[in-house]
Amino acid sequence: MKKNENSIALTMARALALAAVLVVIFYATPAFTQDVEQVDTTGTDPRAFTSKFMPYYLYTELGNGVKVNQFDLFGMYAFTPKLVMMYDWPLFKDVDYGSLDLFKQTGGLGPFSDVSSGGSTAGFGDLNLRFLYKPDTWTGSYLEEGKSWNLMPGIELNLPTASDDVLGTDTTTVAPMLTFVTDLPGGPPFGLGFLVLMNSYEFDVDEGSAGCDVERFRGRWFWMQPLSRPGPNLGDGLYMLTEFQPVYDFRTDDFDFWFGPEFGKIIKDGQIAYFKPGVGLNREKDDRKFTLEIGYRHFF
Q: Per-domain residue ranges for the chain?
């Protein structure tokens, strides 16, 4: 009986989440036929509301020994010059629990009943959707010519679409977002960069049958710095995009901090290749210890 109630609650939560998304799209997109201008050269500026396709491979090693290999379909769809949707879905995800103490203690039983005897399982993961809106009135300019800032509200949805519970969270979460983007002052080379402060407050709306309570703050702070001018040579079109992620869990009173410098190159107009190593400073429990991301960006 309880399982049926959880199933009904999960279905209702997903339906409500979908309805909320449709309402946002309907009321915030009065001009779907408007042209979307591309002003970004590296595909990294969140103020450039253009459609982009940005698949990537990600390796993650946690502090408890769990290793994850995944290939994600990541991209952005611009409904209008004021509203975009970003999607991130692990099309293939392989998780190795072989080094986890709990897996060794249970002998692969309990929550690991669907995991192979070696400790690994593969499938697809949870779907993440983010919607950003760029109001005309939430922007301004510096005294310096050409320098500007933007404040953009948004919402993030995490949907439990994983093919197996151990490949996802089985928890539906919602996260209101507020993103601040500003050009850096001064002239080149430092003045060609910009800062992004993306902050969200995430909480669960449904825990499914195997989920958990979620209430946390997550920051995604970026410093974008061009390293060379675009051009045909190997050393041209280089940039560095360093990301800092502070995460505070209100339920467990845990704090996690991760950072990763992204090094990329403009291959040609609208095409970027990059790699991004990352290190977690708090290596306890299930916090990230080391990550490596390799990706490609194509924008239209």
A: 2-299
Sequence-separated (6 or more) residues with CB below 8 Å from residue 209: 3, 6, 7, 10, 170
Give just the sign of the alpha carbon dihedral 152, 180, 74, 121.
negative
Query: pLDDT tens digits for 125-138?
Result: 999 999 999 998 99
**How, if at all, do strands 172-183 and 148-159 pair?**
antiparallel
Strands (DSSP E) contained in 103-226 are: 120-123, 127-133, 139-141, 148-159, 172-183, 194-206, 215-226
Helices and strands (H, E) in the chain, number of each type: 2, 15
Separation CA 100–CA 102 (nearest Å): 6
Q: What is the CATH number that goes with domain 2-299? A: 2.40.160.40
Long-range CB pairs of 181-185, under 8 A, 24+ apart, other chains included: 181/45, 181/46, 181/47, 181/149, 181/150, 181/152, 182/148, 182/149, 182/150, 183/142, 183/146, 183/147, 183/148, 183/149, 185/142, 185/144, 185/147
Query: CA-CA distance, 286 to 284, in Å (whole number)?
Result: 6
Supply the pTM of this predicted model. 0.82
Higher pLDDT, 44 or 71: 71
